[in-house]
Amino acid sequence: MATRKKSIDQLKKVKPSGSSESSFFELVYQVARQIPKGRVTSYGAIANCLGTKLSARMVGWAMNGAHKVKPAIPAHRVVNRNGMLSGKHHFETPTKMEELLKKEGIIVKEDQIVDFEKRFWDPTEILFD
DNA sequence: CGCCTGACGAAAC
DNA sequence: GGTTTCGCCAGGC
User: What is the pLDDT at residue A128?
Assistant: First the structure.
């Protein structure tokens, strides 16, 4: 919480100069990669952190290409506001997502994360580091 | 260049 | 309170 608006600015600052790829996709990737193991977040949370809260869809859209990027993005730690594994169908296998989550200690039931609120991680925390 | 789609979210009905 | 629609923005056709 706290200065959310500033968050976007801080995040952009993280991007090294010369990188004209300040596309929100990159920002999403960066945030997603900062998600701590055993934690999850929502598209809306990331979008909100980036300042594009009105376009949570774009965050998911960015993830669409996340699986093809090199640094490997833990997209399995990103779910919708409901805590549901909405993107599981986009993984290598529909079960890969929950498998990964379970492996990290996250309980998944019926394609939904148990104690989602407790496992929820706010992307703004990386800015507080 | 215009219409449709899309891993969300919140408001409206 | 559950279901439906709109809004967001960008990319694909």
Answer: 53
